[in-house]
């Protein structure tokens, strides 16, 4: 009976080992897909994981590191036309410090974001530097001395040394909306606070944070935080990302995920998705709702030549968005003269809110019957600036422009 019992225990242990091996296998083997792609390297849970070589039937090849089927870390990609990229990848795209060799002999060394040159770098041809400075979305935008560029690259992308022990990263997130609202509205900014803790025995290095939108969320602009250079065992660091709702945003519920990657692949487990409700608001629409005049001489309600007029106008915001930092200047044309204040700072104007300004003037008989008086309205965003005629006339009752 004892022998039978131990045989059963041995059989169950072997079976459990087989199951675990099938779920978390890391092995070296050659594989091929139905489309002709080939891969030789490490696998884990049936996916490319670790170092390996991938070859596409068109001629492209990659040799480097993979995480869960995605190029991640340092690698070398050779294109079928002979050009090659040697550098870092994040989630299957060229991202970080890289070097690209072109067919014409040019070599670019510098920063990449989402497969294009973006950041500081320099371009070399036949051993001579022909450009050094800043690239933005693959276009050279600003010249910087080579020594300053190389110093920046050295400081920004240090050479990390792998720790003897493994770090273990955990993540806590908190999303804060303006005025503790539950919905992010157009032209508002939310703040995502991310606390990263290393509970392992080794030092984590080169920690990058990416905020990813799980569904189509056009117009929602996310500023990813800076790289954390190192995080010692037992240490925590807090970083923040901003989420801005531009005018292009639509009303919907957005699902966000926080992806934390580490230079040597000790990435944090995916956090629970965050949900964010957004509300698209119409643009501010500033209009003049009423003009009142006080003619000082005979109070007959007419604007007569050489008569000093005290006027009051009311401005209202008919749009849904807040009109921010509103300023108004009263503009006068020929034969109309200002006798008081002509510039006014109104600050923010909310939807359906009214604000008033008071000004004074007089007009000569030579002035046009439709008096050349207008109001120049400026908002913090120049696209909302406008000039509105007053609608006031000489020898006539005041008009309400709206």
* Sheet with the most strands: spatial strand order: 1-2-3-4-5-6-7-8-9-10-11
The separation of the N and C termini measures: 100 Å
Report helical residue fraction. under 10%
The CATH C-level class name of the largest domain: Mainly Beta
What's the structural blueprint in terms of helices and strands?
Layout: H1 2-23, E1 27-32, E2 38-44, E3 47-55, E4 61-67, E5 70-78, E6 84-90, E7 93-101, E8 106-113, E9 116-125, E10 128-136, E11 139-143, H2 146-156, E12 169-176, E13 183-185, E14 189-198, E15 204-213, E16 220-223, E17 228-231, E18 236-245, E19 252-261, E20 274-279, E21 286-295, E22 309-317, E23 323-332, E24 336-338, E25 343-349, E26 354-363, E27 373-378, E28 386-389
Parallel strand pairs: 13-20
Antiparallel strand pairs: 1-2, 2-3, 3-4, 4-5, 5-6, 6-7, 7-8, 8-9, 9-10, 10-11, 12-14, 14-18, 15-17, 15-19, 16-18, 19-20, 21-22, 22-26, 23-25, 23-27, 24-26, 27-28
Give structural notes.
With 402 residues, this protein is mainly β. It folds into three domains: 24-156, Histone H3 K4-specific methyltransferase SET7/9 N-terminal domain; 169-279, Immunoglobulins (Immunoglobulin-like), CATH 2.60.40.10; 286-389, Immunoglobulin-like (Sandwich). 8% of the residues lie in helices and 52% in strands. The chain contains two helices and 28 strands. It has helices spanning 2-23, 146-156, and strands at 27-32, 38-44, 47-55, 61-67, 70-78, 84-90, 93-101, 106-113, 116-125, 128-136, 139-143, 169-176, 183-185, 189-198, 204-213, 220-223, 228-231, 236-245, 252-261, 274-279, 286-295, 309-317, 323-332, 336-338, 343-349, 354-363, 373-378, 386-389. The strands form five sheets. It has an eleven-stranded antiparallel sheet with strand order 1-2-3-4-5-6-7-8-9-10-11, with helices on one face. It has a five-stranded mixed sheet with strand order 13-20-19-15-17, with no helix packed on it. β27 (373-378) and β28 form a beta hairpin. The radius of gyration is 33 Å and the shape is elongated. The termini are far apart.
